[in-house]
Specification:
The chain is of the alpha+beta class. It folds into 2 domains: 3-91, 3-Layer(aba) Sandwich (Glutaredoxin); 104-239, Glutathione S-transferase Yfyf (Class Pi), Chain A, domain 2 (Up-down Bundle), CATH 1.20.1050.10. 55% of the residues lie in helices and 8% in strands. It contains 12 helices and 5 strands. The chain has helices at residues 9-12, 26-38, 57-60, 81-91, 104-117, 119-132, 140-149, 153-162, 170-193, 204-218, 227-237, 240-247; strands at 3-4, 17-21, 43-46, 70-73, 76-79. It has a 5-stranded mixed beta sheet with strand order 1-5-4-2-3, covered by helices on one side. Strand 4 and strand 5 (76-79) form a beta hairpin. The chain starts with a strand and ends in a 6-residue tail after the last helix.
Length: 253
């Protein structure tokens, strides 16, 4: 479950809940919201993606992908936002964010995997192409440093394209848009039958998808075809966990 070994003595010595995150990271938003829903005290280690503060040997020593978020709980390092929020729900079960009932754990887990499974080729591609590519552009020195640190081929390929003069191809951008609309169509269909994405109770499934809605709107995606998604998002926007876990750090994407 996303738990990794590190030799970083400083991190191994941390006690309590420490979150390495970024204001504009939708994956960070998921974890911040979960911590707030649980009412857990946590210590922020904010990293500025525009300044490439994740592209250091120190950060790669705790997160081998050099991305946020990373949770450290009493010296235990957990990466990947879906793994982190499931870890938090298991370790801190009150209030529960996975509804009781036959098959609900698997159902919620499936919604998490659907969201994270399209992250690089759909979500990141769409957001970078339409919003943040220039903001997060790497200098030549930063590119060299990043290539030395990064071992994940998918991320290397993604950032090579994102940092290139050409950017993403029309085919890649079209694929991203299609994938996003197909999957939000699935969310819309679920919300026709249920109050929340996975059923009658607010859950990790909703926490996984609401930052997608928030950031994709900021990147120019239209949700006019998904009225139930818009209503669902409006309700979550009034939750304290959204205000404190998302808007506190990123008032507008």
């Amino acid at each position: 479950m996303g738990i990794i070994a590190t030799k970083n003595e400083e991190v191994l010595g941390l006690r309590g809940l420490h979150l390495y995150h970024s204001a504009i990271s939708l994956c960070s938003m998921r974890v911040c919201m979960t911590l707030e829903e649980k009412g857990l005290p946590w210590i922020s280690h904010h990293l500025d993606l525009a300044k490439h503060e994740t592209h250091t040997p120190e950060y790669f020593s705790i997160n081998p992908n050099g991305v946020v978020p990373t949770l450290v709980h009493d010296g235990v390092v957990i990466i990947e936002s879906d793994d982190i929020i499931e870890y938090l729900d298991e370790r801190f079960p009150e209030p529960p964010l996975v509804p009781k009932g036959a098959g609900m754990k698997e159902k919620v887990h499936g919604w998490l995997k659907l969201a994270t499974g399209m992250h690089i080729k759909a979500v990141k591609t769409f957001i970078y192409h339409n919003k943040v590519r220039r903001m997060l552009q790497m200098s030549d020195d930063t590119k060299v440093r990043y290539r030395k640190l990064q071992k994940n081929r998918d991320l290397l390929e993604f950032h090579a394209k994102a940092s290139s003069a050409e950017g993403f191809s029309e085919e890649e951008v079209a694929y991203a848009g299609r994938t996003l609309h197909e999957n939000f169509g699935r969310v819309e269909a679920s919300l026709r039958e249920n109050e929340w994405i996975a059923g009658s109770e607010f859950s990790l499934a909703d926490i996984a998808w609401i930052p997608l809605h928030f950031t994709l709107i900021g990147a120019g995606m239209s949700f006019d075809a998904y009225p139930r998604v818009q209503t669902w998002a409006d309700v979550i926007n009034d939750r304290a966990s959204f205000r404190n876990g998302v808007l506190k750090w990123c008032a507008k994407f």
